[in-house]
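Hi all, long-time lurker, first post. I run a small reading group and we've been trying to get comfortable going from sequence to structure in the token notation. Rather than ask abstract questions, I figured I'd post a concrete chain and ask someone more experienced to write out its structure so we can walk through it together at our next meeting. Sequence below, copied exactly:
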Amino acid sequence: MAKPMPQGSKEEKKPVPWRPFTEMARWEREMEDMFDDFFGRRLRPILDERWWGPRTAALATPAVDLYEEKDEIVAKVELPGMSKEDIDVNLADRHLTIKGEKKKEEEVKGKNFYRCERLYGSFSRSMELPADVQMEKARASFKNGVLEVHLPKTEEAKKKEAKVKVE
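-- Answer (accepted) --
Happy to help. Here is the structure in token form:
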């Protein structure tokens, strides 16, 4: 329990930094709860999960690191639990689009129990590239749940870089 401060003593108070992004995350959770209260929970006695579907069945948008190197643009995409056959990579104009679909069915039988779980869902992530690329020389690899896409820049895009003198 905190001790009360004696009368007349002045304790130095340190400023507490404001973190707007933690506030935004809290607001987002509160909004989701309000929508769930209004739309979801009100109908659950009428429509159980066989009709409504579990809330956790949807796939989240994958995390992407997109960065530019001297001669190429690299995208690293986290896709845990997926196989390369379930991933589709497309280039159009200056946009990279990555789509995927997860289909997982797990069945476990024991002496006194039976469990069968299914997870289906799809995602699509599209991003604008910071420079023009040579589409015909693009290459992608998938290893340990990480998709890595290498996009060589065009010669014009390489020439657009200039050194600026700092005074």
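A couple of things your group might point at:
Strands lie at 64-68, 72-78, 87-92, 95-109, 114-128, 139-143, 146-152.
The mean pLDDT is 78.
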